[in-house]
Write a structure and sequence with these properties.
about 550 residues; mainly beta; about 5% helix; globular; 9-stranded antiparallel sheet
């Protein structure tokens, strides 16, 4: 997990104390499909010939990416920190159009702070982790360390789940990459500056060996974010120099080295105006033998967004990112892959919460109290916390902002709110604002509140100031928030409301979305309902819509 360039040599463990492989890891030929892949592709539809794709391929916050291919399907995993469920699994059939299939970590059961129970887990939890597929047992593996204390492995036979915990390993594999070798042995590359390789037991439940394999030269600085591959018989560890470089280590002597290092990119101009250098992420090979690098770009206030570029290889086996006018291209020819079996589910659109569970686009701010929410007839949020601080309120439900600008509109039924309750729609980060309904003394009003802030240790420094309000007649209201997340500067967020769902009235001044990197995650739209006096109230959300201009 990388931090931006201005603090590129800072050890994030120290920062937090003071204040993403193809890891398919299966064997990967350097060029051309395997015989199995070749025979399969002969039976598949003719490859698509769409002219080009445009970066970022996903303009939402998916950082520390790990990417693999299983048959004709591509999967990716990303960091989610304190959001629950964690470690989303994304799915694509062409490396360009992606959907969220599920989450590898169903609940952050790593301590009370992830429940907002006496402590908070902001900027902890799911950091750079690894996603792999093991053909021998047809099983997906997710591996990640939590709180620099230990490593957890989850498995599933389908990417969308259900996922369950396989084991806990006492060694914290920092920024790890998991490799399934050709003989089915499991290896893990991990570390910060000092890079190590561990071998796991055949069942993947415990470590049987670990060894330091590389020390980063002082001239390079910090290397982390391991992704582990075996390509044409050689072991490769793909590493990031946060947040402006990418390097690779290569060994022909086995997984434990010795390794030789080469720079892949440094200070490369990226494809997102105002954004950073593409880095971290992973390599993946298409069915036809072409290689791609799925990286991310620091693009605050929206977070870190995935970008894709083709990769070729030198005759002696080193990767080369294909550039456009000396930069990571804004667009490239689309990957030549078979036509998808179906269209992926858009990451924008309408949700009426009509199913028995939340769709995977949603993640809670910390673990929810599952007795205080339900779906089926819209989303019902019952108050779960008595607090005047949104950062302490349980059951705040979040949705990533779509870039470069997008609007969230939510319909609320507030008839079951109680005095002291606060419910609405927030732009949530370490500096936040919201529009919502305040119920006091039996009357409701719509309010816009700014000034919700945290310090660098993620302690609350401001619980918000009401900047504008209006009486609310009746029990139905539509709330709207629009966010501009183009990177490079603080950007505006605006709020409005409606009593008929058609005519919206602006409420309050523009809110400045900060673009500091240290919270790591980007801004999210957030649905909340918490009490300031006593529990018992509720709101119902019949409809949520995320739209772009």
């Amino acid at each position: 997990m990388s931090c931006p360039r201005q603090r590129q040599h800072l050890d994030r463990r120290q920062a937090l104390t003071a204040t993403g492989a193809l890891v398919t890891g299966a064997f990967l030929p350097l060029a051309g499909p395997s015989p199995t892949a070749a025979s399969a592709s002969a039976r598949e539809p003719v490859p698509m010939t769409a002219a080009t794709y445009t970066n970022p391929v996903i303009w939402q916050d998916f950082a520390d990416i790990d990417v693999i291919r299983v048959g004709a399907t591509y999967y990716a995993s990303a960091s989610t920190m304190h959001y629950s469920p964690g470690a989303p699994v994304l799915r694509s059939y062409d490396l360009v159009n992606w959907e969220i299939a599920g989450h590898s970590v169903p609940v952050l059961d790593f301590g009370a702070k992830y429940d907002l129970n006496g402590a908070r887990g902001y900027v902890r939890g799911i950091w750079a982790s690894s996603l792999a597929y093991r053909p021998s047992n047809r099983t997906f593996y997710w591996l990640g360390q939590i709180d620099f204390a230990r490593t957890y492995i989850y498995t599933a036979t389908a990417a969308e789940g259900p996922w369950s915990r396989l084991t806990t390993i006492n060694t914290p594999y920092y920024d790890a990459g998991l490799l399934v070798d050709t003989d089915d042995t499991l290896y893990v590359a991990y570390g910060n500056t000092t890079i190590n390789v561990a071998q796991l037991s055949p069942d993947g439940r415990q470590q049987v060996r670990t060894q330091q394999v590389f020390t980063t030269p002082s001239s390079v600085g910090t290397l982390e974010g391991s992704r582990f591959y075996k390509i044409n018989g050689q072991y490769c560890i793909f590493l990031t120099r946060p947040a402006n470089g990418q390097y690779i280590l290569k060994s022909s002597g086995g997984p434990f080295g010795p390794y030789t290092m080469r720079q892949v990119l440094l200070d490369l101009r990226g494809p997102v105006p105002g954004g950073g250098v593409p880095h971290q992420g992973g390599l993946v090979q298409t069915q036809g033998g072409a290689w791609y690098y799925l990286a991310f770009v620091d693009a605050y206030p929206g977070g870190r967004v995935p970008v894709l570029a083709p990769v070729t290889w030198t005759p002696d086996g080193w990767p080369v990112v294909q550039l456009v006018n000396g930069a990571w291209g804004v667009s490239y020819p689309s990957p030549a892959v078979p036509a998808p079996p179906r269209q992926v589910t858009p990451m924008t659109g309408v949700d009426t919460f009509d199913g028995p569970a939340l769709r995977p686009r949603w993640e809670w701010n910390h673990n929810p109290d599952n007795t205080k929410w339900s779906t089926g007839n819209g989303l019902t949020l019952r108050t779960a916390t008595v607090t005047n601080d949104l950062y302490w309120a349980r059951n705040t439900l979040t949705h990533r902002v779509q870039g470069p600008t997008s609007t969230a509109t939510v319909q609320l039924d507030v008839s079951a709110m109680r005095d002291g309750d606060r419910a609405g729609l927030a732009l949530l980060r370490d500096s936040s604002a919201w529009i919502g309904v305040r119920r006091d003394s039996g009357a409701s009003r719509v309010a816009m509140v700014d000034g919700l802030t945290m310090d660098g240790s993620w302690n609350t420094t401001g619980t918000g100031t009401e900047l504008a309000s209006a009486p609310l007649p009746g029990n139905r209201v539509w709330l709207r928030a629009t966010a501009d997340i183009r990177p490079g500067a603080a950007r505006p967020g605006t709020f409005s409301y409606s009593t008929d769902g058609t005519t919206f009235t602006r409420l309050g001044p523009a809110f400045s979305l900060g673009n500091d990197w240290r919270f790591f995650m980007g801004y999210r739209f957030a649905l909340f309902n918490h009490a300031t006096q006593a529990l018992g109230g509720a709101v119902r959300v019949p409809r949520f819509e995320l739209s772009t201009p």
